[in-house]
Amino acid sequence: MLGLINDEQGLYSEAIDFYKQSIEIKQKILSPTDSNLIVSYNNIGLVYGKIGEYAKALSFLEKVLEIERENGSSDHSNVDATYNNIALVYNKMREYAKALYFFGRALETDREILPPNHPTLGRNGMTWKKYTHLEPFGVDLVGCSGGGGGVPEPPGMICNAYSGDTNCDTSLPILCVKYDDSPQPTIPVIWNYSFGWNRGHIRLTSSVRGSVFRDLSEVNEFCGVIFGNGWRTATFHDGGGGWNYYSYGNISSDKRFWVHVNDQNANCWNR
């Protein structure tokens, strides 16, 4: 209890000391695979992750997973959470292949315990595409069309900002943005709600299944870990309006990419 209180107050060194004391006591009276050790191992592992001691974090989280496996845990949601916690540590370590592996194991566990029609499985997420790059200005135009304008749409640019357009198990890059109040270039275009300026820069991550993330904070963290402080997931309204916007950057035009929409149920990570 004292460890948890210190943890919640941000007193991580004190929390670790109390968690260690709890572990030492339990190890003297319990078997090495007793499920009562799981909580203590998990708590101290998460604290080590918070302070950047990732090797120690993994050591304790892997002990949690080992006990859960040996005991044949009937509560698969606990195993799911452990896979996810390990994946987040690897993500912070920039070991993305390992992070994606454990995110994938968490997804597989979800599939084992959830019914086929559960809202977190088999859902769609919204994707955008790059229209063009304006070389003299170093600016990309990205976005999509809702298909309701009554005019022919550019090939592959239709999207669904309300319920998603691409299965969340599809591996696609995430569009990340750094909002740095960049000045609007003197592009000869008509600026409006559907074609705005995002006042920043954009970049793409490597491809990842949208279903591996549990919420927007994890996707934002993914962008931040890859590209640095200030980077987050791009959103539908970053251009001041919606559907499309211009931004500094020169991203690949080969694939569609995941984008977040704040006010609709069109995100893979809406849980």
Automatic annotation (TrEMBL):
Ranges of the TPR repeats in the UniProt entry: 38-71, 80-113
InterPro entries: TPR-like_helical_dom_sf, TPR_rpt
Name of one Pfam family that matches: TPR_8
SMART domains: TPR (SM00028)
Superkingdom, natural source: Eukaryota
Keywords, alphabetical: Repeat, TPR repeat
Protein name from the UniProt record: Tetratricopeptide repeat protein
Organism: Adineta steineri
Lineage: Eukaryota, Metazoa, Spiralia, Gnathifera, Rotifera
